[in-house]
# Entry
Amino acid sequence: MIALNSKLLRNKEEYSSDKMDLQLNVDMADLLLEYAISNKPSKNHQANLKQLLDVVDMDAYKSTYEIRDRLLLTRSILDLKLNEEISKLALLKEQCKQNNPDLVDLINSTSWTNASLQSSDVKIINKWIEDHMQFYYFYIEMPKIVEIWQSCAKNGFMMNTDALNEVNVRLNKLIVRMKNTEIASGILREFNFAAPNVTDLIKFSVEKAQKPSAILQTGIRNLNAILGPGFRGGRLYTILGMSGKFKSGTLLNIADQITKFNPALEKLNNGKRNTLLFITMENSIEETIERLFNMYADETDSYMNCSYQQVIDILKTKGRFIISDETADGIAIDIRYFANMEINTADIYRIIDDMESNNQHVIGVILDYIKRINSVFQHHGDETQRVTYVAKELKTLALNYDIPVITAQQINRMGNATVDAAMRDGKKDLIRFVGNSDIGGAWSVIEESDWVAIINLEKHVKTGKLYLTIKRTKNRSGKTDVAAMDYFNHPFTNDRSLKLMTDVDKDGSVSILSLSSDLDSVDLSEDAVDAQGRPNLDSIRNNASKSALLSSIGAVA
# Structure
């Protein structure tokens, strides 16, 4: 075991720049030099050390040149290994001499061997580096927050909205930076077949891919096929749709199906229940519970007329939701409601950490939807910039926790105009005419997303039944079932048109590849949407029935 002792900091007021004095001793400086030369640490971890040394105040070591020289040489070695990709020790040594003529004596006296550290030593140093990087972020942010506090104190703590907003931004940035530093070691950032640790890297990659939680499947065969073969950890999934075209409903169906069709995750995980975090900023908790009830209740059952016990019985027996039983098997859904812009992406980190401490292991996050959450970074009211930041931050969160993040975004006016134009021309299967070029302001979301699909509600011309049309427009992994279509239509279980039919539990797929003569897009006219802009399904079905009747009359005539 290695003792990694260091005085962390001097008084921050002594320095005008955002530099940090670690006040290391010679032994610790030697250890970091060995770490830089060694081939045991990953590039990711050595990059963390380079980042730390870049913020160290070298002027603090003017009187202790033996420490300063070791740190300068360490930083030079890391720069050559990371940026110039030099790996041969002899070449590395000679290049260091050329770049640092003042350090030749130290370079010649240094032991240039990459086998001096054990794996256990490297693990401890990795943690030491991560801890100091976290403290650095704390170190540079807290004095600014204290300064704001002192300014408020001088004014008798009068309400200052600008000060509160600035503190909020700085605290959230601090949380995200510290969390990223803490978890980044779980992300594989480089790979080389010739590397000495290639066996460990492949083992890490295979074990990560084969974890039960590595792939979350839905209950729809075709959707699993175009996901290839489900939602994967570390990836951002985005569903695009027009206003009132079942984006929230699709996310809720996905959440419900994940809990039903991943049996390997139904057992407790080290005493923690595997849980899907569902954050809704579109529908209230009450609306979400009612939707879940209507997904499983008979068409004759009314949420308004059932007792609460009847609602519980339907959710428990038909919906198979875990209710008041901490020991039962199963995957839980934790639903959190927040108003528009009430939280930002840093709050999701806090929620996940709170859940983990409450015996809930988060296996995925579903956010309804991306436009309604704030970024931790200042966007000055620019919505496109805010959504761009949010998409990047959600992708980072997915990587950090190695879980899928699934969200939705509304297609902009250009996409709506494309559909409207096709509808006026009498074309069918309208979602076929919408592609990435019609995303417009949501393009930054597409760039950050690993997988993107556009959805649309369409009705069967002859029967008037609703289908959810799904068109995949992006798949970064490139892995897809060879028999899968990137476009299909999927039916609902009944005329309530809230619960998508599952077919993983059936003999074959119930999805159809639509023909233009069979399906027609649902036109959400004023009488076809409710007060909240969601589909008025009764109106849609009535209009569809009228169309079907008129078609049959025309056929007879």
Observations:
- The CA atoms of residues 127 and 182 lie 9 Å apart.
- Residues 119-154 form the longest helix (36 residues).
- DSSP finds 17 helices and eleven strands in the chain.
- The domain at 211-549 is CATH 3.40.50.300 (Rossmann fold).
